[in-house]
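SECTION: protein entry
WANTED: fold as tokens:
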Amino acid sequence: MDMRDINMDQWEKRSAEHQKQYRHFLQKADKNKVLRQLPDLHEAAFERIDCLTCANCCKNYSPRFKTPDIKRISKYLRLKESVFIDTYLSLDEDGDYVAKTKPCPFLGSDNVCSIYEQRPSDCQRFPYTDEDVLIKRPAITLKNATFCPAVHYVLEQLIHP
């Protein structure tokens, strides 16, 4: 499958239809074989997909802001950590700091992140298509496939090479 042939309005529908297939694959996959394939598939996905045309991750979900992220971003914004937390963050049900608002308060109308160079480590790693999270945390992968075309692409390539 070539992502260039997929209507970007249709990939979400296809991903929703394939959730059961993805789940089955992730449960049965040869983890070592998949891990060897991920770097090339990740690179191929981002040769085809421009995050700035999507930004679904920033519009609908929040990364965890871990202590090093909070320290780094606060310093960058020239805010006391407590002010940064009070202004932008709240605690979720897991006790993690997340953005208070959706979309992310640092996402511009042009889908550009205003703190990109200082963004949280979760943002730097997302969508985990080049690391073992893809296989080791199937629930996250399945959720991400519903809103991230890169995850959809990688799963489709793994299942239908």
About this structure: Confidence is low (pLDDT under 50) at residues 1-5.
